[in-house]
User: Fold proline dehydrogenase from Paenibacillus roseopurpureus.
Amino acid sequence: MELIMRNMFQSLGKSRSANRLAKKYGLRFGAARFVAGETIAQSIAAVRSLNQSGRVATLDHLGEFVFSEEEALESAAMCLQTLDAIAESHVTSNLSLKMTSLGLDISKELCMQSMRRILDRAKQYGNFVRIDMEDYAHCQVSLDIYRELRQEYDNVGIVIQAYLYRTEQDIADLGAIGANLRLVKGAYKESPSVAFPEKSDVDKNYVNIIQKHLLGGHYTAVASHDKAIIDFTKDFVKQHGISNDQFEFQMLYGICDDLQNQLVKEGYRVRVYVPYGVDWFGYFMRRLAERPANVWFVLKNMFK
Assistant:
C-alpha cells in the first residue's frame, strides 16, 4: 500500500494539469506546512523566525514546469529578487535553485546565462547558491554545468543523491575540485537500472558517501531527517576529529522541528530548506511520497 501511494504521488507531481489546478486553489489541504508561502515576504518572515531559534536557512523559489524562455527568465528574476530580499532583510539564508526552472530543458546556454547572473549577485552579497539535483535524466548535465561554474565561482555547491549507483564515483570526482555538497538520499522515482531499489542499500551508500566526503576535508551538508544517519554523523565527526565548521545538518521546512532545535542546542549548525512560490505542487507531492505520515497529516486537514 505504501509503495502504491508513493508511486501515485510521484506521478501526480509530474502532472501539468494537476499543477495548474494546484496553482488555482493555492496552498490548501496541508501544503502550507511544507511551503513557507507564495511570496518573498512570506518566505523572509519564515526565515527570520528560524534565525531567531538559532537555525539558518536556504530559500528556494519553487518552479519545475518551465516551458518557455519567458518563464525561465521570470524564474531567474525571482532568484535575483530573493537574493536582494535576503540582503535587505539581513536574515541568514542561502539560495537554492533548480536549473530546469532556469530553462535547462530549453537551452543550456539560457540556463548558464541566468546562473552567472545569479552567482554574480550572490557574490556581491557574500552569499552562496546551491544547485538542487533533479531526476536522473538531468544528473550528468547538472554536474557538467556545476564543474564549469566552479572554474569561475567559489560560492556555488550542488546536491548529490545516495540512491544512484554512480554516486560513489561522483563523490570522488567532485572531491577533486573541493566541491561543497549537500548529500541526500534522493526523492525521485528512478529505474532499478540506475538507482538502488532497496532502502537498506540506499542507507548504506548514504553513510559511505558521508564518510568519504568528510574525510576528504570538504564541506558536507548532511540533509536527512533519519535520526540513525544523524547520530552516525555525530559519532563519526567526533571519532575523526572533524570540526563542526566542516559540516552542517539540513532538514526541510515543516518537518522534525523538535529534532532541528535539539541539534542547535547541541551546538550543530542546522540549515532549513525553505521553499516558497506559486509553483509548489511538484515539491509537495514528493514530500507526501516520502513519508506516509505526511499523507495522514494532509488527510486530517482536508476533513477539518
About this structure: The CA atoms of residues 6 and 291 lie 8 Å apart. Strands lie at 56-61, 93-97, 129-131, 156-161, 181-184, 220-223, 247-252, 270-276. The chain has a mean pLDDT of 88.
